[in-house]
Design a protein that fits this description.
Elements: H1 5-15, E1 20-22, E2 25-27, H2 32-53, H3 59-67, H4 71-97, H5 101-106, H6 111-125, H7 128-153
Antiparallel strand pairs: 1-2
Helix pairs in contact: 2-4
Length: about 150
């Protein structure tokens, strides 16, 4: 039986996630390269956050500060963290959704609830739950293979 291109094209189209419009912005499936760039940015986040929370301090100074931390310092650290974390989160969300960061920050139609809707739609359109499930399965298989490999070497 000969397959027609039309049937194959219809099947492929059905399997692709449908873009959604949220608060006037189209949320669509993101190219893998954009996702990988965003993950690289996320990897740099702890260093940026610590740098902002402890400006002009080296690792030894940071550890000494944490060792001598009191309630006043905890308050200062929280305030500094609140200035860094939201900015980095917005930068990451802008990269993932391909919505310019300034629009995310300035558009009155978005607001906090809109940000949550945009993120929820992005997670769904990009099938993140499926990715996490598949990654867990691969990790479990890799552990079994590693255990079998280590057992055969003994």
């Amino acid at each position: 039986m000969k397959s027609t291109g039309k049937t194959t094209e219809s099947t492929i189209r059905l399997s692709l996630p449908v873009p959604r419009t949220v608060r006037g912005y189209e949320i669509r499936r993101m190219p893998l390269g954009v996702f990988l760039q965003a993950m690289t940015q996320l990897q740099d986040f702890p260093q940026k956050a610590i740098g902002a929370m402890f400006p002009n301090q080296g690792l030894d100074e940071i550890l000494l500060s944490l060792k001598n931390c009191d309630s006043a310092m905890i308050g200062q650290l929280l305030v500094r963290a609140l200035t860094v974390v939201p900015q980095e989160a917005m930068t990451l969300l802008a990269k993932l959704t391909l919505i310019p960061q300034q629009q995310l920050l300035d558009d009155e139609a978005i607001g906090l609830d809109g940000l949550a809707e945009i993120l929820d739609s992005w997670l769904e359109v990009n099938q993140i739950e499926n990715f996490i499930s598949a990654a867990r399965q691969l990790l479990a298989k890799a552990k079994v293979m590693a255990a079998a490999s280590n057992g055969s070497k003994a």
